[in-house]
Amino acid sequence: MSWAAFITPVVMAGALWLMTRSPYSLAFAALGPVGAVLSLVEGRRGGGRERRAAFAERAEELDRLRERIAGAHDRLRRELLRRARGAAAAIDGLDGPVLWKGEETVVSLGRGSVASGLVISGDARDTDELELQRAAARLDDAPVLADPVEGVAVCGPGVLARAYLRGLLVQLYTALPPGRLAPPDLADAAGRARGEWDWLDRLPHQVGAAGIGPRLGVFAEARLVPPGFRTVVTLASPLAAIVEHYPGPKAGGAARGRDHEPLEASVVPELVSLSEAARIAAALAVRAAGLGLGAATRSLPGEVAFGDLPAAGGPRLAASIGRTLHGVAEIDLVSDGPHAVVAGVTGSGKSELLVTWVAGIVSGRTSDEVVVLLVDFKGGTAFRPLAALPHVVGVVTDLAHGEAARALSSLSAELRRREAELARLGVRDVADARGALPRLVIVVDEFAAMIDAFPDFGPLFADIAARGRALGIHLILATQRPAGVMRDALVANCPLRLSLRVQSDADSRWVVGTDAASRLSAATPGRCILSIDGATTEVQVARTAAADLAGLAAATPPAAPPRRPWLDPLPEVLTRADLSARATPQVVGVADLPEQQRRAMLEFQPEQAPLVVLGAARSGKSSLLRLLADASTVESVIVGADREQAWDAVEAAAERCEDPEARAEPGLLLAVDDADALCARLGDEYAVVWCDRLARVLRDGPAAGVYPVVAAQRQTGPLRGALGLARETVLLRQQSKQDHVLAGAAAELWDEGMPAGGGVWRGRRVQFLAPPPHLETFAGVRASAGGEPPSPVQLVPPQGSATVVVSRSPARIVARARAAGLPPESLVDLTRPAEPGALTPEALLADGHLPVGVLLVGDPEAWMGRWSLFATLKSRHTVVFSGCDAADVRALTRSRVLPPPLAPGTGSGWLVLTDGRMRRCVLTAA
């Protein structure tokens, strides 16, 4: 009722009272409030009835909607149960009709809440409607599904996690039949080590089947789970687990089993014991045998003989290597390769696999069709049985790194040679060459060890892998752990993979893409997983006996010896008879050029000097000097170990270098042997001067026609600076690899067993000719037995002459002079007081004419005391230093010139001429 209806009667009653002044008129004023109250009461009674009717109708509609939601939820639960029944239901249905009737690789992780997929449209107006929308979207007590192919990681205590994971595997392998599932990619090294997953081997789902491989793993904590697992289940207790889903890659559409995401993280897990899992595997094997499915009908043999395999033959490189569940395992390096990777730990049968594979490749083929190069970095024993095959062009081992380096370096030249040959034939592939080039198979055992020893071979093998298919070169690379060793560029060209037993899942996945190789038993050597373009098969490799190889060699049709991809090593002894007929007398050896697959003759011309030869004892230094002298086109002088000879020869050469007219003289080859030993024998003072003169000869000699060649064991002391002036260095065998490298040679050319005459020159391994045994057979070569012969000085001077003698043993000189017949009046001994009437030096100087020959003798101290007298006598008469050292000579003569060295034990001394020159001399009695 409106306020107007309530107020109108009151207003009219007031107007009537004003006109009539009757109190009855005021009674009309009460009609408005009374009517308003009555109308309000009646309106409220009618509105309550309508609201109660509306509320009742809405409640009925919500109940009907709840029933529809519950029905939809029940249908969804049944659908989820149909897709994944759970472990308990899978075990109960082992003998039922639903075994192996599954269509998806999904499993139930347990009961929990998931998204139902139901949506109630419209805006919720109250709490009941909001709760109903949430209840519709939520499916409680439903199986939480996951796809093991996308990766399921189980975290928690090992015993609990493995029991839970066994439940997932039981679901999977009872849902899908043999042939639909590959072996699981199982990350649990500790469990396999204890044999907790051996029951999987008894499942009828054959190993290596071309089916879907689930990926599962056991980890202690969620933070340890590597990438690649989309679902992580953390077991808090045997009754509760927490599930976490992670988004997968966007490519390829939605993942299977992802249409019902979990709403709550908690599920109730199902656990299966190890004994129960073993029982289930045995029951499945029996059921498969009855139905004729999978591996239950046959198994791989534990051993296969190569003689029982048929020869593959054919124009390519097909080879029978063993047996699979389906028959003979045959692989072809040409169609399945062109290159292969083989992995396997020690004792897994890797070497036996390589031997069998090589035997299969050459079986029924001649060396005109295929040749094999074997590289064994385990000492050379693995491939020893194959060496007798006519197809094998060489076995390279790590026992001689120099040989390994040169053989492998030759492969670059082989690539170039094959390219040139194909270009000559006008074809682009060896398959079109009509047999002009045999295919070359390079087998490397312990590839990782080879790369460690020769890092530069990594790019070489990558190059071979990239270009080998067209050139007919194929690689079989074997190692224990290929991951991290082989470059991506190399592995990309190796689609053919074989993995025997390896240590870890990661190694197995790296090679063949699954964990199967890490689960192979150590009790069955030769069992491997073969992967060709990702498809895997389990193979038992055949064992090849020595008789099998002998039979292959005997059955191979005769053919010309195959061309080797590298030449034989240089001989230890090289003679002129080994050279070609076109070798000139100047040829002194040959150089090894493995990267060009040839040898080059080395010629020596004097103009190549100055030349230094470094080598250890008995490395052939002296023989090489004689050889160079024999090959020289100029006169040669060989300086040996004699100190006097070495001093005189180098001094004469140094003087010739200072002579401007020396260019007109005939050339001279100066060969100095054992220069470092000569320095040691000369002593420090003489060595410094001698090395300085030798440096002058090395620097200026060729311009003056002197061509020096110096040999030494080491560059030490003052000799180092002199030898550094040489134009070239020949490095013979050194004491150690360190000395070899410090001398400037490449480390790979170091050879501890390098023969005499073998060395490194101009960066090449060389072998010099063995010289004739005797020096006198060399034409135009002279070598004096000593230096310049000493000048004789008589102890009894001729009449009218005087001889001055300085000696540290003057008494001995006096005794020798008297024994030689020198009269007393002709002897002046400065070490004794002068007798009355005896001849004195002063009287000798006062009288210019001597009546007799006079001998003046004194020690250095006595002459130093009368130095002015000595200086006067030195300018007029002969002075002899006998039994003194160079310091005495330089002190008394006041000269910086070092006297020539004296050979010990010869009794020679120094003669100082009046013009100051010094030479060797000897005091004689006559």
Automatic annotation (TrEMBL):
<feature type="domain" description="FtsK">
    <location>
        <begin position="325"/>
        <end position="509"/>
    </location>
</feature>
<protein>
    <recommendedName>
        <fullName>FtsK domain-containing protein</fullName>
    </recommendedName>
</protein>
<dbReference type="InterPro" id="IPR050206">
    <property type="entry name" value="FtsK/SpoIIIE/SftA"/>
</dbReference>
<dbReference type="GO" id="GO:0003677">
    <property type="term" value="F:DNA binding"/>
</dbReference>
<keyword id="KW-0067">ATP-binding</keyword>
<feature type="binding site">
    <location>
        <begin position="344"/>
        <end position="351"/>
    </location>
    <ligand>
        <name>ATP</name>
    </ligand>
</feature>
<keyword id="KW-0547">Nucleotide-binding</keyword>
<dbReference type="InterPro" id="IPR003593">
    <property type="entry name" value="AAA+_ATPase"/>
</dbReference>
<dbReference type="InterPro" id="IPR002543">
    <property type="entry name" value="FtsK_dom"/>
</dbReference>
<dbReference type="Pfam" id="PF01580">
    <property type="entry name" value="FtsK_SpoIIIE"/>
</dbReference>
<dbReference type="GO" id="GO:0005524">
    <property type="term" value="F:ATP binding"/>
</dbReference>
<dbReference type="InterPro" id="IPR027417">
    <property type="entry name" value="P-loop_NTPase"/>
</dbReference>
